[in-house]
Model the fold of this input.
Amino acid sequence: MDEMSEPLRGKRIIVGVSGGIAAYKAPLLVRLLVKAGAEVTCAVTEHALQFVTELTLETVSQHRVYSQLFDRSNPHSTEHISLKDWGDALVLAPATANIIGKMANGIADDALSTLLLSFRKPLFVCPAMNTQMLESPAYRRNADRLRADGVHFVDSTSGQLACGTTGDGRMAEPENIVAQMVKQLQVEQDFHGKKILITAGPTYEKIDSVRFIGNFSTGKMGFALAEELAERGAQVHLVAGPTHLTTQHPNIERIDVHSACEMYDAATSRFPSCQAAILTAAVADFRPEHQADHKIKKQNDHDGMTLQLVQNPDILATLGAMKQAGQLLVGFALETDNELENAQKKLTKKNLDFIVLNSLHDAGAGFGYDTNKVTIIDRQGNVTPGTLKSKRAVAKDIADKIIQQP
Ligand code: C5P
Done:
Protein backbone atom coordinates (compact mmCIF):
# COMPACT_ATOMS: atom_id res chain seq x y z
CA MET A 1 0.00 0.00 0.00
CA ASP A 2 1.37 3.44 -0.81
CA GLU A 3 1.13 6.76 0.98
CA MET A 4 -1.70 7.89 -1.29
CA SER A 5 -4.10 5.07 -0.41
CA GLU A 6 -3.02 4.80 3.25
CA PRO A 7 -2.05 8.37 4.20
CA LEU A 8 -2.32 7.61 7.94
CA ARG A 9 -0.23 4.44 7.88
CA GLY A 10 1.72 4.01 11.14
CA LYS A 11 -0.42 6.56 13.01
CA ARG A 12 -2.32 5.65 16.18
CA ILE A 13 -5.55 7.58 16.48
CA ILE A 14 -7.93 7.83 19.40
CA VAL A 15 -11.55 8.50 18.44
CA GLY A 16 -13.32 10.22 21.33
CA VAL A 17 -17.10 9.97 21.22
CA SER A 18 -19.40 12.10 23.36
CA GLY A 19 -23.15 11.83 23.77
CA GLY A 20 -24.81 13.49 20.79
CA ILE A 21 -27.00 11.93 18.11
CA ALA A 22 -24.12 12.25 15.61
CA ALA A 23 -22.37 9.50 17.62
CA TYR A 24 -24.08 7.11 15.19
CA LYS A 25 -21.54 8.30 12.61
CA ALA A 26 -18.54 7.47 14.84
CA PRO A 27 -18.22 3.83 13.62
CA LEU A 28 -18.05 5.12 10.04
CA LEU A 29 -15.29 7.55 11.02
CA VAL A 30 -13.41 4.70 12.69
CA ARG A 31 -13.71 2.59 9.52
CA LEU A 32 -12.43 5.40 7.32
CA LEU A 33 -9.46 5.98 9.63
CA VAL A 34 -8.63 2.27 9.60
CA LYS A 35 -8.96 2.28 5.81
CA ALA A 36 -6.52 5.21 5.70
CA GLY A 37 -3.99 2.98 7.47
CA ALA A 38 -4.40 4.14 11.09
CA GLU A 39 -4.63 1.99 14.18
CA VAL A 40 -7.69 3.20 16.10
CA THR A 41 -8.92 3.00 19.69
CA CYS A 42 -12.14 4.60 20.94
CA ALA A 43 -12.71 6.46 24.19
CA VAL A 44 -16.34 7.25 24.97
CA THR A 45 -18.52 9.00 27.53
CA GLU A 46 -21.32 7.15 29.24
CA HIS A 47 -23.89 9.22 27.31
CA ALA A 48 -22.27 8.27 23.99
CA LEU A 49 -23.16 4.66 24.71
CA GLN A 50 -26.83 5.63 24.52
CA PHE A 51 -26.31 6.28 20.79
CA VAL A 52 -23.66 3.76 19.76
CA THR A 53 -22.67 0.46 21.33
CA GLU A 54 -19.31 -0.54 22.68
CA LEU A 55 -19.52 -3.72 20.62
CA THR A 56 -19.90 -1.78 17.35
CA LEU A 57 -16.90 0.43 18.10
CA GLU A 58 -14.81 -2.54 19.23
CA THR A 59 -15.67 -4.47 16.09
CA VAL A 60 -14.77 -1.69 13.66
CA SER A 61 -11.64 -0.60 15.55
CA GLN A 62 -10.47 -4.06 16.61
CA HIS A 63 -9.53 -2.54 19.97
CA ARG A 64 -11.12 -2.41 23.42
CA VAL A 65 -13.21 0.71 24.05
CA TYR A 66 -12.10 2.96 26.90
CA SER A 67 -15.15 4.12 28.83
CA GLN A 68 -14.53 3.73 32.55
CA LEU A 69 -11.97 5.64 34.56
CA PHE A 70 -11.66 2.82 37.07
CA ASP A 71 -12.09 -0.24 34.85
CA ARG A 72 -9.30 -2.51 36.08
CA SER A 73 -9.68 -4.97 33.23
CA ASN A 74 -8.96 -2.39 30.51
CA PRO A 75 -5.22 -2.09 29.76
CA HIS A 76 -5.54 1.65 29.11
CA SER A 77 -6.94 2.27 32.58
CA THR A 78 -3.58 1.46 34.11
CA GLU A 79 -0.73 3.90 34.43
CA HIS A 80 1.83 1.89 32.50
CA ILE A 81 -0.02 1.65 29.17
CA SER A 82 -1.71 5.00 29.23
CA LEU A 83 -3.87 5.86 26.23
CA LYS A 84 -2.51 9.43 26.08
CA ASP A 85 0.96 8.06 25.34
CA TRP A 86 -0.37 5.50 22.86
CA GLY A 87 -2.15 7.96 20.57
CA ASP A 88 -0.46 10.18 17.96
CA ALA A 89 -3.65 12.23 17.57
CA LEU A 90 -7.15 12.38 19.04
CA VAL A 91 -10.35 13.23 17.21
CA LEU A 92 -13.45 14.07 19.23
CA ALA A 93 -16.46 13.26 17.04
CA PRO A 94 -19.06 14.24 17.88
CA ALA A 95 -18.02 16.90 20.38
CA THR A 96 -21.00 18.09 22.40
CA ALA A 97 -21.22 21.56 23.94
CA ASN A 98 -20.81 19.82 27.30
CA ILE A 99 -17.47 18.15 26.57
CA ILE A 100 -16.17 21.28 24.82
CA GLY A 101 -17.07 23.26 27.97
CA LYS A 102 -15.23 20.75 30.12
CA MET A 103 -12.16 20.83 27.90
CA ALA A 104 -12.04 24.61 27.82
CA ASN A 105 -12.19 24.73 31.62
CA GLY A 106 -9.93 21.81 32.48
CA ILE A 107 -12.67 19.64 33.97
CA ALA A 108 -11.85 15.94 34.09
CA ASP A 109 -14.69 13.92 35.63
CA ASP A 110 -14.86 10.80 33.47
CA ALA A 111 -12.60 8.61 31.33
CA LEU A 112 -12.80 10.72 28.14
CA SER A 113 -12.49 14.18 29.73
CA THR A 114 -9.55 12.98 31.84
CA LEU A 115 -7.82 11.72 28.72
CA LEU A 116 -8.53 15.01 26.89
CA LEU A 117 -7.00 17.07 29.71
CA SER A 118 -3.77 15.07 29.64
CA PHE A 119 -3.46 14.80 25.84
CA ARG A 120 -0.59 16.91 24.39
CA LYS A 121 -0.62 15.87 20.73
CA PRO A 122 -2.77 17.06 17.80
CA LEU A 123 -6.38 17.26 18.88
CA PHE A 124 -9.32 17.57 16.45
CA VAL A 125 -12.74 18.62 17.67
CA CYS A 126 -15.85 18.07 15.54
CA PRO A 127 -18.70 19.97 17.18
CA ALA A 128 -22.28 18.79 16.78
CA MET A 129 -25.17 20.48 18.53
CA ASN A 130 -28.27 22.50 17.82
CA THR A 131 -27.92 25.98 16.38
CA GLN A 132 -28.92 27.81 19.58
CA MET A 133 -26.25 26.02 21.58
CA LEU A 134 -23.68 26.67 18.84
CA GLU A 135 -24.48 30.36 18.87
CA SER A 136 -24.56 30.76 22.67
CA PRO A 137 -21.98 33.11 24.16
CA ALA A 138 -20.77 30.39 26.55
CA TYR A 139 -20.11 27.90 23.73
CA ARG A 140 -18.34 30.53 21.64
CA ARG A 141 -16.16 31.51 24.57
CA ASN A 142 -15.20 27.90 25.17
CA ALA A 143 -14.53 27.18 21.49
CA ASP A 144 -12.39 30.34 21.15
CA ARG A 145 -10.39 29.31 24.17
CA LEU A 146 -9.70 25.87 22.72
CA ARG A 147 -8.73 27.37 19.35
CA ALA A 148 -6.26 29.64 21.17
CA ASP A 149 -4.90 26.51 22.91
CA GLY A 150 -4.09 25.06 19.47
CA VAL A 151 -7.01 22.63 19.12
CA HIS A 152 -8.03 22.03 15.47
CA PHE A 153 -11.74 22.50 14.79
CA VAL A 154 -13.47 20.60 12.02
CA ASP A 155 -16.44 22.92 11.89
CA SER A 156 -20.05 21.81 11.78
CA THR A 157 -22.13 22.42 8.68
CA SER A 158 -25.68 23.56 7.97
CA GLY A 159 -28.47 21.10 7.36
CA GLN A 160 -31.29 19.24 9.01
CA LEU A 161 -30.71 18.72 12.72
CA ALA A 162 -31.97 15.95 14.99
CA CYS A 163 -34.25 18.38 16.82
CA GLY A 164 -36.25 18.83 13.60
CA THR A 165 -34.94 22.27 12.68
CA THR A 166 -32.56 23.27 9.93
CA GLY A 167 -29.41 25.26 10.67
CA ASP A 168 -25.73 25.13 11.55
CA GLY A 169 -24.67 22.39 13.97
CA ARG A 170 -24.48 19.15 11.93
CA MET A 171 -21.25 17.31 12.53
CA ALA A 172 -18.87 17.46 9.54
CA GLU A 173 -19.07 14.35 7.36
CA PRO A 174 -16.59 11.62 8.39
CA GLU A 175 -14.89 11.84 4.94
CA ASN A 176 -14.20 15.54 5.52
CA ILE A 177 -12.96 14.91 9.06
CA VAL A 178 -10.46 12.32 7.79
CA ALA A 179 -9.36 14.66 4.97
CA GLN A 180 -8.61 17.48 7.45
CA MET A 181 -6.76 15.11 9.75
CA VAL A 182 -4.62 13.79 6.90
CA LYS A 183 -3.76 17.35 5.86
CA GLN A 184 -2.65 18.29 9.38
CA LEU A 185 -0.92 15.05 10.31
CA GLN A 186 1.09 14.75 7.13
CA VAL A 187 3.31 17.69 8.03
CA GLU A 188 6.76 17.12 6.61
CA GLN A 189 9.26 16.33 9.38
CA ASP A 190 12.02 18.42 7.80
CA PHE A 191 13.36 19.53 11.22
CA HIS A 192 13.56 15.99 12.57
CA GLY A 193 16.68 15.53 14.70
CA LYS A 194 17.41 19.27 14.91
CA LYS A 195 17.62 21.19 18.18
CA ILE A 196 16.54 24.82 17.95
CA LEU A 197 16.84 27.57 20.52
CA ILE A 198 14.20 30.32 20.53
CA THR A 199 13.95 33.37 22.80
CA ALA A 200 10.56 35.05 23.12
CA GLY A 201 8.61 37.69 24.97
CA PRO A 202 9.71 40.72 26.95
CA THR A 203 12.17 40.88 29.84
CA TYR A 204 11.35 42.46 33.18
CA GLU A 205 14.16 44.38 34.84
CA LYS A 206 13.55 44.67 38.54
CA ILE A 207 13.62 48.13 40.19
CA ASP A 208 12.54 46.99 43.64
CA SER A 209 10.43 44.22 45.17
CA VAL A 210 7.22 45.42 43.45
CA ARG A 211 8.30 47.34 40.30
CA PHE A 212 10.05 46.61 37.05
CA ILE A 213 10.97 48.08 33.66
CA GLY A 214 9.35 46.07 30.87
CA ASN A 215 7.93 46.39 27.36
CA PHE A 216 4.78 45.51 25.42
CA SER A 217 6.06 42.34 23.75
CA THR A 218 3.66 39.38 24.18
CA GLY A 219 5.90 36.61 22.83
CA LYS A 220 3.37 35.56 20.15
CA MET A 221 5.93 35.49 17.31
CA GLY A 222 8.40 33.32 19.24
CA PHE A 223 5.70 30.95 20.48
CA ALA A 224 4.32 30.58 16.93
CA LEU A 225 7.84 29.69 15.76
CA ALA A 226 8.24 27.15 18.56
CA GLU A 227 4.98 25.36 17.58
CA GLU A 228 5.81 25.44 13.85
CA LEU A 229 9.29 23.97 14.31
CA ALA A 230 8.14 21.39 16.87
CA GLU A 231 5.38 20.20 14.51
CA ARG A 232 8.03 19.81 11.82
CA GLY A 233 10.05 17.53 14.08
CA ALA A 234 12.47 19.87 15.89
CA GLN A 235 13.33 19.68 19.58
CA VAL A 236 12.75 23.26 20.71
CA HIS A 237 14.27 25.04 23.72
CA LEU A 238 11.96 28.02 24.22
CA VAL A 239 13.45 30.59 26.59
CA ALA A 240 10.47 32.77 27.46
CA GLY A 241 10.24 36.07 29.29
CA PRO A 242 7.08 36.81 31.32
CA THR A 243 4.01 36.00 29.17
CA HIS A 244 0.58 34.45 29.58
CA LEU A 245 1.02 32.28 26.49
CA THR A 246 1.01 28.49 26.74
CA THR A 247 2.86 25.89 24.69
CA GLN A 248 1.14 22.88 23.14
CA HIS A 249 3.62 20.59 21.47
CA PRO A 250 5.44 17.98 23.55
CA ASN A 251 8.71 18.68 21.65
CA ILE A 252 8.91 22.14 23.23
CA GLU A 253 10.96 22.49 26.40
CA ARG A 254 10.02 25.82 27.95
CA ILE A 255 12.44 27.70 30.18
CA ASP A 256 10.78 30.64 31.94
CA VAL A 257 12.95 33.63 32.81
CA HIS A 258 12.35 37.20 33.95
CA SER A 259 15.36 39.39 33.27
CA ALA A 260 17.76 39.84 30.36
CA CYS A 261 20.58 38.37 32.47
CA GLU A 262 18.54 35.23 33.18
CA MET A 263 17.67 34.98 29.47
CA TYR A 264 21.36 35.40 28.62
CA ASP A 265 22.36 32.51 30.94
CA ALA A 266 19.60 30.22 29.64
CA ALA A 267 20.39 30.98 25.96
CA THR A 268 24.20 30.88 26.09
CA SER A 269 24.25 27.60 28.02
CA ARG A 270 21.94 25.88 25.51
CA PHE A 271 23.23 27.29 22.21
CA PRO A 272 26.30 25.00 21.86
CA SER A 273 24.07 21.89 21.57
CA CYS A 274 21.69 23.52 19.03
CA GLN A 275 21.81 23.63 15.23
CA ALA A 276 20.05 26.99 15.11
CA ALA A 277 18.88 29.86 17.29
CA ILE A 278 16.12 32.36 16.54
CA LEU A 279 16.05 35.33 18.88
CA THR A 280 12.63 36.98 18.82
CA ALA A 281 12.67 38.32 22.39
CA ALA A 282 12.34 42.04 23.05
CA VAL A 283 15.23 42.19 25.47
CA ALA A 284 15.57 45.31 27.61
CA ASP A 285 18.79 47.09 26.70
CA PHE A 286 19.20 48.47 30.23
CA ARG A 287 18.52 47.38 33.80
CA PRO A 288 18.57 49.37 37.04
CA GLU A 289 22.07 49.38 38.48
CA HIS A 290 20.73 48.65 41.97
CA GLN A 291 17.69 46.47 42.58
CA ALA A 292 16.14 47.14 45.96
CA ASP A 293 14.79 44.11 47.82
CA HIS A 294 12.18 46.31 49.53
CA LYS A 295 9.67 48.80 48.10
CA ILE A 296 11.39 52.14 47.44
CA LYS A 297 9.51 54.88 49.35
CA LYS A 298 8.82 58.45 48.21
CA GLN A 299 11.25 60.79 49.98
CA ASN A 300 8.95 63.82 50.11
CA ASP A 301 6.12 65.30 48.06
CA HIS A 302 8.21 67.29 45.57
CA ASP A 303 11.42 65.43 44.83
CA GLY A 304 11.85 63.50 41.61
CA MET A 305 13.85 60.34 41.40
CA THR A 306 16.82 59.29 39.29
CA LEU A 307 17.17 55.69 38.27
CA GLN A 308 20.70 54.75 37.27
CA LEU A 309 20.68 52.19 34.45
CA VAL A 310 23.43 49.88 33.20
CA GLN A 311 23.57 48.00 29.91
CA ASN A 312 22.35 44.43 29.62
CA PRO A 313 24.41 41.88 27.70
CA ASP A 314 23.46 41.53 24.02
CA ILE A 315 22.41 37.88 23.77
CA LEU A 316 22.25 37.85 19.97
CA ALA A 317 25.74 39.38 19.57
CA THR A 318 27.11 36.90 22.12
CA LEU A 319 25.66 33.93 20.23
CA GLY A 320 27.02 35.45 17.00
CA ALA A 321 30.52 35.38 18.52
CA MET A 322 30.01 31.81 19.82
CA LYS A 323 28.62 30.50 16.51
CA GLN A 324 30.44 27.49 15.02
CA ALA A 325 30.36 26.12 11.47
CA GLY A 326 27.05 24.33 10.93
CA GLN A 327 25.15 26.57 13.34
CA LEU A 328 22.64 29.09 12.10
CA LEU A 329 21.65 32.33 13.81
CA VAL A 330 18.55 34.41 13.13
CA GLY A 331 17.79 37.78 14.69
CA PHE A 332 14.83 40.16 14.65
CA ALA A 333 14.98 43.90 14.12
CA LEU A 334 12.52 46.63 14.95
CA GLU A 335 13.62 49.92 13.41
CA THR A 336 12.03 53.32 13.11
CA ASP A 337 14.47 54.99 10.68
CA ASN A 338 16.57 53.68 7.77
CA GLU A 339 15.04 50.28 8.42
CA LEU A 340 16.78 48.25 5.73
CA GLU A 341 20.18 49.83 6.19
CA ASN A 342 20.15 49.41 9.97
CA ALA A 343 18.91 45.82 9.73
CA GLN A 344 21.69 45.03 7.25
CA LYS A 345 24.30 46.55 9.58
CA LYS A 346 22.96 44.49 12.50
CA LEU A 347 23.11 41.34 10.37
CA THR A 348 26.84 41.83 9.75
CA LYS A 349 27.77 43.17 13.18
CA LYS A 350 26.06 40.34 15.08
CA ASN A 351 27.24 37.63 12.64
CA LEU A 352 23.73 36.47 11.66
CA ASP A 353 22.64 34.26 8.79
CA PHE A 354 19.49 36.26 8.28
CA ILE A 355 17.50 38.94 10.02
CA VAL A 356 13.74 39.44 10.18
CA LEU A 357 12.78 43.09 9.96
CA ASN A 358 9.47 43.90 11.66
CA SER A 359 7.39 46.58 10.09
CA LEU A 360 6.29 49.34 12.41
CA HIS A 361 4.34 51.17 9.72
CA ASP A 362 1.59 48.66 9.02
CA ALA A 363 -1.65 48.21 10.92
CA GLY A 364 -1.82 44.71 12.40
CA ALA A 365 1.95 44.22 12.61
CA GLY A 366 4.09 44.12 15.75
CA PHE A 367 3.48 43.82 19.49
CA GLY A 368 0.32 42.05 20.61
CA TYR A 369 -1.21 41.39 17.19
CA ASP A 370 -1.84 37.90 15.83
CA THR A 371 -0.56 39.09 12.47
CA ASN A 372 2.80 40.41 11.34
CA LYS A 373 4.49 41.83 8.27
CA VAL A 374 8.20 41.22 7.91
CA THR A 375 11.07 41.54 5.46
CA ILE A 376 13.75 38.85 5.52
CA ILE A 377 17.31 39.94 4.72
CA ASP A 378 20.04 37.32 4.42
CA ARG A 379 23.83 37.55 4.45
CA GLN A 380 23.95 36.88 0.72
CA GLY A 381 22.14 40.21 0.29
CA ASN A 382 18.70 38.86 -0.67
CA VAL A 383 15.84 41.03 0.56
CA THR A 384 12.43 39.32 0.67
CA PRO A 385 9.49 41.53 1.64
CA GLY A 386 6.40 39.74 2.94
CA THR A 387 2.72 40.58 3.17
CA LEU A 388 0.60 40.93 6.30
CA LYS A 389 -0.15 37.39 7.51
CA SER A 390 -0.73 35.40 10.69
CA LYS A 391 2.29 35.04 12.96
CA ARG A 392 2.04 31.30 12.38
CA ALA A 393 2.33 31.86 8.60
CA VAL A 394 5.34 34.16 9.19
CA ALA A 395 6.81 31.38 11.37
CA LYS A 396 6.41 28.97 8.44
CA ASP A 397 8.26 31.37 6.12
CA ILE A 398 11.11 31.66 8.62
CA ALA A 399 11.27 27.86 9.06
CA ASP A 400 11.33 27.41 5.26
CA LYS A 401 14.15 29.97 5.01
CA ILE A 402 16.18 28.08 7.63
CA ILE A 403 15.79 24.82 5.71
CA GLN A 404 16.90 26.53 2.47
CA GLN A 405 20.09 28.00 3.98
CA PRO A 406 23.27 26.72 2.33
O1 C5P B 1 20.19 45.54 18.51
P1 C5P B 1 18.75 45.27 18.63
O2 C5P B 1 18.26 45.21 20.07
O3 C5P B 1 17.87 46.12 17.77
O4 C5P B 1 18.59 43.79 18.04
C1 C5P B 1 17.40 43.07 18.08
C2 C5P B 1 17.70 41.61 18.05
O5 C5P B 1 18.68 41.32 19.06
C3 C5P B 1 16.52 40.71 18.40
O6 C5P B 1 16.68 39.49 17.72
C4 C5P B 1 16.66 40.53 19.91
O7 C5P B 1 16.04 39.32 20.34
C5 C5P B 1 18.16 40.50 20.08
N1 C5P B 1 18.66 41.04 21.34
C6 C5P B 1 19.28 40.21 22.26
N2 C5P B 1 19.81 40.71 23.40
C7 C5P B 1 19.73 42.03 23.69
C8 C5P B 1 19.12 42.89 22.77
C9 C5P B 1 18.59 42.37 21.61
O8 C5P B 1 19.32 39.00 22.01
N3 C5P B 1 20.24 42.48 24.81
Summary: The chain has a mean pLDDT of 93. The pocket of cytidine-5'-monophosphate is lined by residues 199, 260, 279-281, 283, 285, 312, 314-316, 331-333, 346 (CB under 6 Å).
